[in-house]
Amino acid sequence: MPYKVRKKTCKKSDGTLGSHTLYKKSGGKLKKIGCTNDPKGAIAARYASERETKMTKESLSNKTIKLIIVPSKLSIGKKCPDATQDLKLNTKNRDASIKAEHIQYGPLNVDEPGDYWKDIAEYWNTTVEAAKKSLCSNCVAFDISPRMDECMPGVTSDKDGRLGYCWMHHFKCHSARACRTWAKGGPIDEDKVSYEWQERNKKSLEERKKKRKKKKKKKGKKDACYYKVKARYKVWPSAYASGALVKCRKVGAKNWGKSKKK
Prior knowledge:
By secondary structure, this protein is an alpha+beta fold. The chain is 45% helix and 16% strand. The chain has helices spanning 39-61, 66-74, 82-85, 87-99, 116-124, 128-131, 146-151, 191-218, 224-232, 239-251, and strands at residues 3-11, 17-26, 29-36, 142-143, 157-158, 161-166, 171-174.
């Protein structure tokens, strides 16, 4: 086995202490590669990652490209969340969380927060001191599990804290920040719990897709009357245009607009 675990106190990437040190055998020597409180989960995650890499290489050699692209795009099973691999999507979700009135992710600069903590304290009807203790770092949806660490590109920690994944709003968030939807109970530091959150989010995503499809079906169909009436009215949509559209569909597009006088 290339991986070995020793019960030895160590320091994790977020600055907290771990109970087991993870090593990998390379060239006859053991190289330290991690620190964890869940040795079995950490090793399982490493092997899963290696198997995935191996399967990807085999798929490429057999030119079965679809088997690689589709699961990654849909975030099926134990794949990394899309936002951890797609910078554009992550930025979009983060910016939306900053602007949304019910979320207000921040502060932008943890060293110069401005009125952020005062405002969020008023929103929660609590003190600034209490608000500052309600951070992403102890939120129920903040994922810093070993497998999520592997999903994160680059360095995950700095002097103020570390990066994790937010399962509520789907972006890489920082432990020193907060938002209005904060909920006690975190962080998520076990792979098993991380996968459970992913499965719940997958079901929620499927339900939202079904609702969007239903809404599209409910919208007015773009038939001949739609285009004919829209071309006639400068203001669209409007009450007059809607009334004309109803009349057009009663008499038919060919007959609508024709004068009854001979």
